Amino acid sequence: MSTQSHEKLLQEFETSNKAAWIEKAVERLKDKDFQALGSVTYEGIRQSPFYTAEDQVHNALTATDFGNAAKWQNREIIHFFPWVDNDQDLRIEDAPQLAQNAHQLALQALAKGADAVHFDLFGVDATLVDFDVLLQGIDLEKNAVGFSFDGRIEPFISQMDHTQWKGTIDYDFLANWTISGHYHNTVFEDLAELIHYTHHRPQVKALTINTNHLHNAGANAVQELAFGIATVVEYIHQLTDLGLDLPLLLRNVEFSMGTGSNYFMEIAKFRALRILWKQVLAGYEVDTARFPVSLHAQTSVWNKTVSDVYVNMLRSTTEAMSAVIGGSDALSVLPYNDFFTEPDEFARRIARNVSTLLKEESYLDKVIDAASGAYYIENLTQSLAKQGWALFQQTEQRGGFMKAFKAGFIQTEIEKVASERIANAEAGIDVLVGTNKYQNPDEALESIPEDADATEAQNGLRLLRLRRVAEGIERQRLKENK
Predict the structure, then answer these.
(1) Every domain range in the chain assigned CATH 3.20.20.240
(2) pTM of this structure
(3) How would you list the strands of the sheet with 253-259, edge to edge?
(4) pLDDT tens-digit profile of 205-259?
(5) Domain 63-381 belongs to what architecture?
């Protein structure tokens, strides 16, 4: 078709704007309220029925803000302690076999699609762990490795002192404190020592900021952003007071966030974190280009069900897409049954392949910030960044993360949202396929673990972490009142 005929074709259509579309919608709706087509999210954001170029907002992000996010890590989590043994103490005679088991799982993951593994040593006495066994046969130049633990750091540093590797250390004791209600007196000094350990290891990050526990307690996107930023600022204040070099500290930061099933909201959440991180750095008068945010995403536990469990695979897929489109640098897709049993090879393979499919068959690793310019997502991003910063400032006005948590502010804010989510699920307002809609009538009750709470089995929502957060602060109060 010639250019001239093409122009004539376009001339046959009248130009329209958003007002014209609204007018036509109102005409079709007759007596119905047009505004009723919109909705209000758990974040309190009022969403329009549709968005056009007239709703376009400034995109505060550029490609440089995303670093290598398009080449995200497929990071598999390896539990040193099998799920079934989590409530038992590690016996010294069991440690060698557990290390071998974790090592074999890591090799298997790396051979079958993962390009990073993370050893979960939470609750494990590191003096009983042989790190040489865990890392044997892993190409440390090619593959990233990570470790999370909550106890003594000396065994880790002494064993890894002469090892060159890349990856992450998760020693986020503030996150653990919100769950357990306690930490030992030298935790900030220990974390400072871990960060010093990375001084000659520029590809290792040792300051992980977790918001997964808040996400899985029912927090909305604004709360996860705000309290995550409040946590990192708390660490900055405490660690620089100990004399830690600020640039070294900032270089070590990695955020680890949950990703849920509100598809567009989660995309916007990850993008909004990058805006908030730039605002934090600007507050410390630091060149933001020197320290692009590092972001790890982990699929949600909050919305998973112990009945009709295979539905969890589908939820994790959309959650993973939100994470990578939102710009995550690393992604951990949890096996569909990870939260109530030790996953078998089938469950691990399916989870691992979600990330692989998004790369190899969906080509999402070929573009940076794929959501850029989408009117709706850009609006959500700006709203989340604005509201997240406002809630962060409220937290700071209460003395920062630790004081706000001790006062019960953080728990109370999250519990309001969590209670609303649960009520909406029980009323069927929020649909959970396989749980409160389209249940599997042929599912045998035996498929539900014997120790699973009956209510959890019915509604698919896990309030356990929220209870732990509340119980943790109560224990902290009791300690302080003694």
Answers:
(1) 63-381
(2) 0.89
(3) 204-205, 167-170, 144-148, 116-120, 73-79, 330-332, 295-299, 253-259, 207-210
(4) 999 999 999 999 899 999 999 999 999 999 999 999 999 999 999 999 999 999 9
(5) Alpha-Beta Barrel (3.20)
